[in-house]
Specification:
mainly alpha
Length: 179
């Protein structure tokens, strides 16, 4: 799981998303997030690309696009690939744990809960993904100071706090005044 989450996030966030977002303007960022999320969704159809053209696969494709939007929003708003990897690994891990341990027995009924066994096809999960993505993007200036651990390695990514830019210069102790 950590290897899958790490490899997917490195490919789809640091390579694809950053390639599609050469200018860090909000409109360009939104377009890059949506486009990289579509690539993320289509990449999950490598075993049978023609099957994705059927109407049966549309809910899964929508779910994967919205998952990609959420992971991209986490990456953009936190300026940290580690955070996106953590969210992706947590989602994968919870899916595996719930399936293997049967801690929660849940049989979805109705179209709101999608196909049996895959919550990514559920409109209720789409709302959760969309809401979390909106939260991360709307509050990115308040989140980033606590999460931008890679800012020193990637100086082109802006970091900010509540009152202005983060001062990343080394702290130098003032000479002590001995009397």
């Amino acid at each position: 799981m950590p290897v899958l989450a790490t490899s997917e996030e490195l490919i789809f966030r640091t390579v694809v998303l950053n390639h599609l977002r050469p200018v860090r303007k909000p409109s360009g960022t939104v377009v890059a997030i949506v486009a990289s999320s579509m690539v993320f969704s289509l990449a999950h159809a490598v075993e049978s690309p023609i099957a994705w053209l059927s109407l049966e696969r549309v809910p899964l494709m929508i779910g994967l696009i919205l998952l990609g939007v959420l992971l991209s929003a986490v990456y953009v708003s936190t300026a940290s690939i580690s955070c996106a990897i953590g969210v992706h690994a947590a989602l994968l891990g919870s899916k595996v744990v719930l399936r293997k341990t049967h801690l929660v027995e849940f049989t979805p009924t109705g179209w709101w809960f999608g196909e049996a066994g895959d919550l990514r096809t559920a409109p209720v999960v789409w709302l959760v993904f969309s809401g979390l993505a909106a939260f991360f993007l709307l509050f990115s200036n308040r989140i980033r100071p606590f999460t931008a651990v890679e800012a020193d390695r990637f100086p082109d990514r802006p970091t900010s706090n509540f009152s202005g830019p983060v001062d990343r210069s080394p702290v130098v102790n003032a000479p002590s005044r001995a009397a």
